[in-house]
From TrEMBL, chain B:
It is a multi-pass membrane protein. Residues 65-257 form the ABC transmembrane type-1 domain. Belongs to the binding-protein-dependent transport system permease family. MalFG subfamily. The chain crosses the membrane at residues 7-27, 61-88, 100-127, 133-152, 189-207, 237-257. This is Maltose/maltodextrin transport system permease protein MalG. Keywords: Cell membrane, Membrane, Sugar transport, Transmembrane, Transmembrane helix, Transport. InterPro entries: BP-dep_ABC_trans_perm, MetI-like, MetI-like_sf. CDD domains: TM_PBP2. It is found in: Cell membrane. GO terms for cellular component: plasma membrane. GO terms for biological process: maltodextrin transmembrane transport. GO terms for molecular function: ABC-type maltose transporter activity. It comes from the Bacteria.
Automatic annotation (TrEMBL), chains C, D:
SMART domains: AAA (SM00382). Transmembrane segments: none annotated. This is ABC-type sugar transport system, ATPase component. Residues 3-233 form the ABC transporter domain. GO terms for cellular component: ATP-binding cassette (ABC) transporter complex, substrate-binding subunit-containing. It comes from Gynuella sunshinyii YC6258. Pfam families: ABC_tran (PF00005), TOBE_2 (PF08402).
TrEMBL record, chain E:
The lineage of its organism: Bacteria, Pseudomonadati, Pseudomonadota, Gammaproteobacteria, Oceanospirillales. Its main location: membrane. One of its GO terms (cellular component) is plasma membrane. This is ABC-type sugar transport system, permease component. Keywords: Cell membrane, Membrane, Sugar transport, Transmembrane, Transmembrane helix, Transport. It is a multi-pass membrane protein. Gene3D superfamilies: MetI-like. It is found in: Cell membrane. One of its GO terms (biological process) is transmembrane transport. The keyword rRNA-binding does not apply.
Amino acid sequence: KDYTISVVAGGSSDADSYRTEAIAMAADILMREAAVAGESLNIKVEQRSYNNWDDFKQAVTLAAESGKAPNIVVTGHEDIAAWAQSGLIVPIEDYISLDSWPVNNIYPNLLNIASYNNRVYGLPQDAEARPFFAWKDHLAKLGYSAADIDAFPDKIATGEYTLYDMLNDAKKAQDMGLVEPGYGFYPRVSNGPDYWQFYTSFGGQLQDPQSHRLVFDQEAARKTYQFFIDAVKMGVTRKNHIGTPWDQWYAEVAHGKAMFWHGGTWHYARYTGKEGLTDFFGNIQFSLIPAGDRSGKANTLTHPLVYLLTDQKNDDVQEIAAKLIQIASEPRINTLHAIKSSHLGITKEQLNIPLYANNRWAMEATERLLPYASAMPNDTDFGNFWNIYWKGLEAAWTGQKTAEQAVKEAVTELRATMANSVIIR
Amino acid sequence: MRSAKLPFVILSILSVPLALMYLYLLIDTFTISEPGSLMPRGFTLEHWRFLWQDLPGRANIWQVTLNTIIFATITTTLVLLLSSSAAYALSRLNIPGRRILLGGAMVLHAFPSVTLLIAIFLILQYVGLYDTIAGVVIIKASLELPLGIWILKGFYDTVPWEIEMAAIQDGASRFYTWRKIVLPQIKPALAALAIFSFLASWSEYILPQVLAPGNHAQVLSVYLAGLIADDSHFDMALFKSVGLFYVLPVFALFLIFQKQLMNMYGGGTKG
Amino acid sequence: MGIQIRNFTKRFGQTTVIDNMNLDIESGEMIALLGPSGCGKSTTLFAISGIHKIDEGQLLLAGEDVTGKPPQQRNVGVIFQSYALYPHMTVEENIGFPLMIRKEAKADIKRKVQEMTELVGLKGLLGRKPAELSGGQQQRVSLARAMIRRPEVLLLDEPLANLDARLRITMRAEIRRIQQETGITAVLVTHDQVEAMSMCDRIAIMRDGKVLQYDTPEQMYQVPANDYVAGFMGNPPTSFLSGHLEHGTFRSLEADVQLPLPVLHSYSDQPVRLGLRPEHVRLEPQSANTATISFIENQGRELLYDLTLADGSVIRTIQPVNLHYGVGQSVHWDIDPHHILVFDEQGDLIHAG
Amino acid sequence: MGIQIRNFTKRFGQTTVIDNMNLDIESGEMIALLGPSGCGKSTTLFAISGIHKIDEGQLLLAGEDVTGKPPQQRNVGVIFQSYALYPHMTVEENIGFPLMIRKEAKADIKRKVQEMTELVGLKGLLGRKPAELSGGQQQRVSLARAMIRRPEVLLLDEPLANLDARLRITMRAEIRRIQQETGITAVLVTHDQVEAMSMCDRIAIMRDGKVLQYDTPEQMYQVPANDYVAGFMGNPPTSFLSGHLEHGTFRSLEADVQLPLPVLHSYSDQPVRLGLRPEHVRLEPQSANTATISFIENQGRELLYDLTLADGSVIRTIQPVNLHYGVGQSVHWDIDPHHILVFDEQGDLIHAG
Amino acid sequence: MNKSTSLGPFMLSPALLFVTLFFLLPVVMTAVFSFTTMSTATGITGGRYQISPASLRVLAGDYQLPELARQLGQQRYHIDDSGLNILREEQENTELVDEIQQKLSGQSFTQRRDLERALRQLNHRPRNVRKIKEIAEAFQHTVGSEPFDSADALLKAIQDSGVTLTESEQQAVIKSSYTGWHWSLENYRRMVSLPDTATALFNTLIYVLFTLMLFNLGFALCLALMTHYLPPRSGAFFRGLWLLPRISPPVLYVLLWKWVAWDTGFLSALLANFDVAPRNWMLNSATNAWVFIILINGFVGASMGMLIFSSAIKAIPQTQFWASDVDGASRWQQIRYIILPQLRWPILFITCYQTLSLLASFDLILLATDGGPGGTTEVWSLKAYHTALNNYAGNLQYGYGAALAMVLVVMGLVLSLLYLRVFKFDRLVSKPRIEI
Ligand SMILES: Nc1ncnc2c1ncn2[C@@H]1O[C@H](COP(=O)(O)OP(=O)(O)OP(=O)(O)O)[C@@H](O)[C@H]1O
Ligand SMILES: Nc1ncnc2c1ncn2[C@@H]1O[C@H](COP(=O)(O)OP(=O)(O)OP(=O)(O)O)[C@@H](O)[C@H]1O
Ligand SMILES: [Mg+2]
Ligand SMILES: [Mg+2]
């Protein structure tokens, strides 16, 4: 039998080529299996990657509306909610057994992230975490001993070292002239999931575990907003930091122009690759995002991409696609992607794959970060929810509003926009 | 004729920022200077490598350029065809509601195309032109119509009635008169509009991106946009080079056809 | 093919431009529509050609009612004031256009164009575009284009207006010759009376959408229906003099003029206007009427004198160059009674010598 | 203010349009530049006004060298061939423009415009836009605009070309009167010899960027420097006849013409061209020269006959209307020897009667 | 085709067809969308019926039926005879059915996954995951969270699960479980109630007004006038230079501005020589941001006006310039009295055309400041884009986006009608002189 399976990946650059190639490899394996079993099966895999998320999502949704959806979509897990509700995708658990290999080896929290309405819609394609970074040399000059620096991640993990401690150190570093003003704390330059980490650091919760409803914690939001206001006030972060060009930012953080910053596990590839930082571990310490204050907790956020199965109105095709996804999630195959693109693995067994195990970054990051990783909830209203949160943060950061005002307006807007589906505390 | 010194000086001063921007753009594509450095250093052709080798994972630049040329050319042709006939009817023919139609053409321009995309998509989808170059061409041409109609109408207004009368007297039908007698009179305007539409189509990004997302017919704007989203491998100098490559043909086109393009205005009112 | 215009009325919006006009043009005749700007000459032509709709009335060509027919179905050739040549076509294409429309054979067209260009004297210019031609040449292309399909009616809208004096004289003769040779019925619109007189069999003088007089040039020159027509005919123009008729003598006290008009002895105390043509006003030392020369214009072989009378009114006389009067000189003048045109107060002709 | 043009040369790219021209115009004089289209008349005007730069030579106004000065600094009024009225301004604004530029008081401008419009007969049209005016009215606006600031030099580029005959005559007189009254030095560009003769003190006849003759109208009419000038002067135009001069007699075998020219008895077997003015050609039954009438044109008070000679060449005669000849009729003609112009092969005048 | 009354429609129809199909129809559809709750999640073309946590929340909250919601929310699988009979009827593998009866009879499961797991332990288990799913479904005693294609199917499934509904309960369940869009005025209500609606409107006003006046008209005029007085060659050069922003791709063009304005950019580097601390000039303050937004858009916008004005000036007969030279007009007076009055119509045209262009455009702002700092430069169209088309979390709100777009359409419509009226555009239509 002949099948053509198309796979489309969003937000992918050259380093992410295994997102789609893994499916092609899986097809090869599946065909060989069929041949061994004496069946004739012929699968052709069409691959396509998009750099730009907006374009990708637009293309996929419009293609789906016109009945031309690709069979497999690689996208952020947050799309599951909307796409599942609109019927664009079907649950993968209808086609493969969750108890089978390698699905049963996937980290359960990742599999959870790929679920909606209690059903598993896709398999995680990769994992990552969003660490907090510090430039070791600056830490040393601030007076931290080598041992202190090594213990830094632990101090953060326990909540001993908070975000405000960090601001103070940053200020000190600036005053000492280690970094220029505004470079003490040098966050991500555009909106992104990273900014939920601070909300979590201040004790915020995104989803109510019982009702699965979104939660807006006013106090946590206020503290988060205030934190950035304070950072600006102390001069360690620029008021207009948002909007700085990415390539400038990368070049700066990779060469010690900043004291503290945060990013993603994949930054490792960029620092050591294009930016030419040869000794990553000698220069940069990484950890969880510190707790906001004593009441909050250190955390990190993972934002896995997932393989999703689109509704083709043809169970046979969907089943083949599901099988391909299943095979592509084999530790060996997934490791190719994880290492090449500096992401983290999805299965426990990957730690036993030499390619993975020999990669210091992958191993350390997996150990240090992944167990603490939370994720954004899958909810159709989450996009709106996020926009509103971000708008408030940006207004506070740039000095347009006080933290209180910003929270108040966010609440007003939340009430007006999504009434029942959000719990406002 | 009087001296042109004063306007030259003023204009030069006003143009400095713009000229600097593009000058440094040019310099950056041929050197290895760091971003933000004022003194260029280290000549290289490295950033222009896309011209002779395909970038990994991307279409061949020449194929993409060809696609763009085809896209722009067909769109331009369509704009010319549609607006030249519609504008003639509005300018010269005795049809009820001319006033309203002409006003309508202007009002059309008020519709923000981006926000209508979803609806446009559904229609294209319904007529089976979604994800085809033909679909994008049609939409782009429709968007350019109001301007085309208004410009050409102004020109039709200036064609002397007498030659049209003469042709009719000589036995030609109105339609034939339009095609063989009136149309040749507004050639300069057609040329201007053609160039203008070509420029506009050349730089169109959203429409091909959204309405023809398939890989088969990538245009330059989409190719270029594809280069930036890659935040871990973003190569600014390469991006600038491709950008310059994208701008240069149309810039040359403008310089060559500037005389024709300067015929954008055909009058229109005597008040 | 004769043309009959019956009760023709044309309105643009509220304004009536042609008011119930009647005009009979015989087959093979060439007539002129003469009148000041805006009197409706072009409008009349447009009606005949079919470009304008007729609001009221009828138009007959060769006795057939063509009122509702479009221009394409009337065999009418038009020469426009501005020639209306097709700027993008060569002379050859311009002239051949009406034949091409009819889809005649290429060879035929070529031959006919050849003939036509010889007729109008354009040989050797066939490859040029209108912009490369002089006014006179353009004129002739326009003529050739109108003639080539042998129209039964030729309409000419100020065809000579843009030509210089010399060319105009030549073209006048040319057009008239061709018209007479081919026996076409022609209507010439002009505001130049010399043109109208020299080219046409009959002239219709129009004012404000009405025909004032429709007559042969000689008749019109000699017996103008009213002072307006008299003023229009004659070059240099007729001078007018107001006064009273008393028992066979015209008198103007203010102008200090007295002229015998024995034929009109029956009138007494009749206010009249005299029309005096400059060519009939003589400088006669014996005359009792005096005037002062206020301006002399050299017209080449003759001189035109402005004679200012006692009341400041001016009459003109044209005289051979060999007389030597100067500006400011006082002269005596006279005119033969049978050359005097006499109009009543309304301007209608009472008597022509 | 006198104008001196010294060794003026003007080139457009490669082509020399004016070639080392010299012209002296006296203060208060009105001269005409007469010549065919493209001979450089307008170019000369543009040089005087300062619109064009002078490639070589000098221009003196009132003895002062103004060669390098921009138009704004020369007090020169120009009437353009196409009027160049400002289409967006009313008549009043158009005429007042030069004064407004000088920031004269509103009331003054209004008064002067009023005066000027009366002078040129535009009263009542002050509120109109140029597009709403007839050609003649536009012409007069242009005139008024040029005159209103009392220029010392007035340049007129074919100012009467678009007027009808009657208006043209009136305007000729008017312009001349204003020019004489105000003592302005004026240069009139025209290709109409009647206009040039009737309005100007002197005429410069130009061809191909050169001045052929610069003289008073009478002199030019009676003693044209060459056949070209002769052909230009006179209305209807001079007819020419080629032949030989043999001991005091002109002979053309082909045309079967023989005319005595006793004054020129010294020439023998000299090829010449005769210039015959229509007004001097007489229809004389006794004459031995015969011709056939090939066309008759009614000019109102006179008739113009085309006389075709044996070899097909045509001469013209103008005769009073009371003679009754018909087309095709054979006639005898003659001319007084002292009215004959004789030119040599190069066209230069040998003798004027 | 001799009559203009028949030729006219014929010649207009192609353009009319295009415009209707691809312009008017989308507008009408957008207007329709704006009264719906359409989003990615609801799909565009239709929905299904699904008992999901969200729908149960609505049922419990909006319809005050918490007990029903609880009932429907239950998941229960019970191995009983009715299920086995169904399997037998469907002629399933009898050995398997027998084994189920034998080993699992009487057992209950709250998760399908658990039942499936149990089934997978059996000896005669099917190889196929889908088969197992089908078998499990036979024992389902609740509606579950499967989507149904029709309301009737859902109701039937509920009935089958043993829950009987009253008429009103049925309606409530149908409404709350529908995943597609429904009609609603919510979008407009929401728009009115949000505080930054007014801000966006005000920003739009500033943006359109300043860009239009300063650049699209003012600067365009300056360019046209100055290049007019230049020799043709340098005129062409400057026009070409100023056309560059228009023909450059926006991403590249904005990048150049960032190169100028950012804290590592040209301006900072240049001013460093004068001891001015480097800063992000573009985002330093709201005022700065506006200045740059207007500059960025203005540089692009000026070229269109420049082209139209330049060619309009070119169309003025040269003799008028000569005449005014001779009349003594200085260059400034020439501009003031001769050129500008005759540019009336092109100026009006550009005003009209560019107002509408500006209203609808946002791409440069998006790339330059993205509405920042802190939303101070977020204009209406950008807001529409942000809220409706640019949603990180994938759920694009077509309905709300359409409502925002409709506001723009209405603004544009009103403005253009106003322009058409005020500028007396109808005078442009003159009566044809050929009356057939
Ligand atoms: N389309 C029109 N709408 C309104 N009035 C018109 C129209 N065309 C002509 N007229 C008016 O009709 C009258 C007659 O116009 P027509 O063109 O026939 O004059 P004409 O005798 O040809 O004048 P001219 O010698 O100036 O060409 C004029 O008063 C003119 O203003
Ligand atoms: N800008 C120019 N470039 C090149 N040649 C020109 C230019 N202006 C005029 N000429 C040429 O110079 C010659 C003289 O032109 P000019 O306008 O002075 O003629 P004119 O005597 O006024 O003729 P007309 O009676 O037709 O107005 C013509 O042959 C013309 O073609
Ligand atoms: Mg007319
Ligand atoms: Mg000239």
